[in-house]
Design goal:
With about 100 residues, the chain is α+β, with helices and mostly antiparallel strands. The protein has 4 helices and 4 strands. Strand 2 and strand 3 form a beta hairpin. The model has no long low-confidence stretch (mean pLDDT about 90).
């Protein structure tokens, strides 16, 4: 049985697995996935999970612009600027997620 922290981390990874996603989209995806479960995840839990995933090298933050290619950000962006970036699962994150999902 996953603990709550692992649940939130897994949901955040699922939210960014297929495309660059904004923080707002990550919140929406997680709440859509958990709406029927009545787990009551907080914004703080989701932000903490995202920061932890970045620190662990499983998720990467990117600065995106319609005029330039995506620029990877080193480490965790300032917390008060998290909503200005997009997030995507790293190769390490994809491998981790595949192991978590099983064969």
């Amino acid at each position: 049985m996953e603990d709550r922290r692992d649940l939130v981390r897994g949901l955040a990874m699922d939210a960014v697995a297929d495309d660059y996603e904004s923080l707002g989209t990550i919140f929406k995806v997680i709440h859509r996935l958990t709406g029927h479960l009545d787990v009551g995840l907080t914004t703080r839990e989701i932000i903490d999970a995202l920061i932890g995933l970045i620190c662990d090298g499983l998720v990467q933050a990117f600065a995106l612009s319609p005029w330039t290619s995506a620029v990877a950000v080193d480490g965790v962006p300032p917390e008060n600027e998290l909503d200005q970036y997009y997030y995507y699962l790293t190769q390490k994150g994809h491998r981790f997620q595949a192991q978590r999902s099983g064969p």
